[in-house]
Amino acid sequence: MLRSDTFNAKIVLVTGGRSGIGFQIAKDFLQLGAKVIICSRKEEQLQKAAEELSNFGEVTHQACDIRKTEEIQQLAKMIKEKYGRLDILINNAGGQFPALAEYINDKGWNAVINNNLNGTFSMIREMANTFFIPQKSGVIINIIVDVFRGFPGMAHTGAARAGVENLTKTLAMEWSDFNIRINCVAPGIIESSGLDTYPKQIQDMFEEAQKAIPLKRFGKVEDVSNAVTFLSSPMAEYITGISLYVDGAQHLNFDKMGLANVLKSFIS
Ligand SMILES: CCC/C=C/C(=O)SCCNC(=O)CCNC(=O)[C@H](O)C(C)(C)COP(=O)([O-])OP(=O)([O-])OC[C@H]1O[C@@H](n2cnc3c(N)ncnc32)[C@H](O)[C@@H]1OP(=O)([O-])[O-]
Ligand SMILES: NC(=O)C1=CN([C@@H]2O[C@H](COP(=O)(O)OP(=O)(O)OC[C@H]3O[C@@H](n4cnc5c(N)ncnc54)[C@H](OP(=O)(O)O)[C@@H]3O)[C@@H](O)[C@H]2O)C=CC1
């Protein structure tokens, strides 16, 4: 629905852009005129995705683990040398594993908090200091998760994403002087490569739980990407500090205990 030149000459970084939701976001920005950089940990898959995306426009890729600040700094350096600026940052990289809270050990907790909260903050800080604050302009979108009613079965990611949601509100205030807009997109259950990482029993539970989603279907990667491109566009230039739920109203009417109950059944 957006004009095909909406993001002409804009430079966009999509973390985790090699797969699933991030891949669709990268593709849509390219089709709307942007030049896109994708990053993630797995070099080979990243390169393959970049090759595929190059059918739609100019794509650059660089391996970067968002948990490693020095790798983020190298990424910023590359973008500065190649493009001299960055206009839009999409923090999509992330993930977790299902587990009841009492079984999450320190290593697992820290892995998920580092991935989803600390890594996201480091990425935001480095890109803001290198580009957005000196430019006095920038747009940041953080992909979180529907954590409206907590996240039974994934306490670590619930805590991390709630942290990102609150960080987003803070930065919308602190960085308004620099003309930086920052928002979250909170997907419900999205049919994407990410879901394939879950055990079959959990995927079956999601299938069954679909009936409780008011719009009676899972989301598509396009649903998430549409929200991201809208919030990044001039159409949303007065919107900052919000979370846009892309979930078919799941956050209002969904048995949040479903996942936890499946995990309990593994144990009993
Ligand atoms: C409703 C749907 C909503 C959301 C959907 C999506 O998000 S879809 C998107 C979904 N996409 C994704 O989620 C993809 C991205 N996800 C990931 O990369 C991983 O899940 C990660 C976030 C833990 C990162 O891990 P990493 O790179 O640090 O690698 P690592 O393997 O070294 O783990 C470190 C420690 O974590 C612990 N631990 C890990 N797994 C399990 C487990 N199954 N069980 C128990 N514990 C587990 C364990 O302690 C392990 O250490 P150990 O005991 O092995 O020495
Ligand atoms: N699918 C769903 O139902 C939902 C997904 N989400 C969130 O949306 C985002 C995308 O998910 P989706 O596309 O479904 O799943 P994927 O697993 O396909 O995507 C995760 C992406 O993040 C990258 N990534 C993970 N950890 C790191 C890291 N430390 N540094 C850099 N890149 C990393 C992965 O690449 P690599 O392995 O190469 O590092 C991968 O490209 C995630 O944050 C996810 O939690 C939220 C709600 C629902």
TrEMBL record:
Keyword tags: Fatty acid biosynthesis, Fatty acid metabolism, Lipid biosynthesis, Lipid metabolism, NADP, Oxidoreductase, Peroxisome, Phosphoprotein
One Pfam entry name: adh_short_C2
Gene Ontology biological process terms in this record: fatty acid biosynthetic process
Reactions it catalyzes: a (2E)-enoyl-CoA + NADPH + H(+) = a 2,3-saturated acyl-CoA + NADP(+); (2E)-hexenoyl-CoA + NADPH + H(+) = hexanoyl-CoA + NADP(+); (2E)-decenoyl-CoA + NADPH + H(+) = decanoyl-CoA + NADP(+); (2E)-dodecenoyl-CoA + NADPH + H(+) = dodecanoyl-CoA + NADP(+)
Pathway noted in the entry: Lipid metabolism
EC number, as in UniProt: 1.3.1.38
GO molecular function: trans-2-enoyl-CoA reductase (NADPH) activity
Domain of life: Bacteria
Compartment list: Peroxisome
Database matches in InterPro entries: NAD(P)-bd_dom_sf, Peroxisomal_t2-enoyl-CoA_red, SDR_fam
Entry's family note: Belongs to the short-chain dehydrogenases/reductases (SDR) family.
Function recorded in the entry: Participates in chain elongation of fatty acids. Catalyzes the reduction of trans-2-enoyl-CoAs of varying chain lengths from 6:1 to 16:1, having maximum activity with 10:1 CoA. Has no 2,4-dienoyl-CoA reductase activity.
Subunit: Interacts with PEX5, probably required to target it into peroxisomes.
The protein's name in its UniProt record: Peroxisomal trans-2-enoyl-CoA reductase
